[in-house]
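Is this the right way to post structure tokens for a design question? Let me know if I should format differently. Anyway, here goes:
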């Protein structure tokens, strides 16, 4: 039998994070309209695409934090302040990205010496560690606590850890080497780094050949992919825990929380393997669309691990869950047979 999960009471959502979620959602809509009317381009993509992608990412992540921090937990005052710091830092950082988009220039790695960019880069460089550290503290405080039901708690614990790793991997973009680009008006701009690793390190690597929608590089290794997977692993794992809960009434061996929690661990380890592979692939300058034999072998190994893990969980938890069911069924059948058996009729006093 499953244990009912505790749900956050109305009005208990973390308000600064909730406000950040709403602001980022509004910004997403604004950027969609801005792209329709503003034809300026940076690295072969709309100047408003980057603000939109950041707005979508923070809508999802801030909303997730607002939800999970609403559950009762120890250290709630500390996590509230960390959530507030995360919210403020996110608004400031994304605000600078919007300002640079409106100016038709780069927000990341921009080495221009104009006053707006110089001040903005200083704010940017101090804000990013704030996001990372606030998220790290929240992860450490919650990692040893059962926040809600066992499977969802495990998804939150693993997801926060993966998110911290994804944020940390973003720092490696700063070591990819300088680039020379032009802003939306054709003015040369020196970039101290980028997000694409290409053999030979040409003067311009970012935005040369890209995928549709995501604009991830098809010309080299794009470090944003691992960064993206890390940040949004928590949503995937939480959705997986919800899906397993939905299947539980229909699949007997999933009715126990331990079985579903163990499956979440297997998924989390497999997802971490995928994260590591995409980062390793990017470091080697290999496009995600052109995996070599080593990459395909690593992906196959991760898939085999997940399949074996699922099988092991079923063998251990599934059998333990099914045995009581069979015993109960046997007991019930015996009771029915006993009830159906004819009872001996006692002799009446007159016949004695």
């Amino acid at each position: 039998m499953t244990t009912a999960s505790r749900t956050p009471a109305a009005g208990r959502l973390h308000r600064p994070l909730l406000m950040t979620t709403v602001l980022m959602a509004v910004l997403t809509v604004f950027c969609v309209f801005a792209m329709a009317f503003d034809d300026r381009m940076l690295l072969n993509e709309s100047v408003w695409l980057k603000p939109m992608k950041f707005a979508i990412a923070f809508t999802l992540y801030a909303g997730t934090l607002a939800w999970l921090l609403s559950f009762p937990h120890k250290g709630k005052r500390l996590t509230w302040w960390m959530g507030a710091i995360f919210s403020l830092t996110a608004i400031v950082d994304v605000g600078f990205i919007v300002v640079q988009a409106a100016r038709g220039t780069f927000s990341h790695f921009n080495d221009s010496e104009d006053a707006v960019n110089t001040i903005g880069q200083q704010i940017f460089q101090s804000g990013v560690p704030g996001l990372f550290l606030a998220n790290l503290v929240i992860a450490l405080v919650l990692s040893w606590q059962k926040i809600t039901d066992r499977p969802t708690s495990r998804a939150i614990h693993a997801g926060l850890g993966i998110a911290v790793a994804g944020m940390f991997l973003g720092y490696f973009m700063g070591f990819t080497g300088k680039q020379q680009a032009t802003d939306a008006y054709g003015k040369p701009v020196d970039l101290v780094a980028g997000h694409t690793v290409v053999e030979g390190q040409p003067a311009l690597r970012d935005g040369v050949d890209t995928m549709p929608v995501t604009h991830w590089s098809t010309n080299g290794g794009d470090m944003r992919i691992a960064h993206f997977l890390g940040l949004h692993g928590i949503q995937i794992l939480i959705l997986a825990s919800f899906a397993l809960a939905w299947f539980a009434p229909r699949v007997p061996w999933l009715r126990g929380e331990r079985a579903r929690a163990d499956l979440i661990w297997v998924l989390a380890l497999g997802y971490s393997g995928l994260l590591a592979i995409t980062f390793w692939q990017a470091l080697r300058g290999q496009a995600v669309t052109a995996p070599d034999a080593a990459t395909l072998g690593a992906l196959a190994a991760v898939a085999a691990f997940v399949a074996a893990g699922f099988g092991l969980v079923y063998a251990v938890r599934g059998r333990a869950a099914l045995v009581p069911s069979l015993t109960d069924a046997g007991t019930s059948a015996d009771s029915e047979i006993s009830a159906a058996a004819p009872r001996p009729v006692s002799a009446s006093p007159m016949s004695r």
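Format looks fine. Someone answered above. Worth noting: The chain has a mean pLDDT of 88. The longest strand covers residues 179-182.
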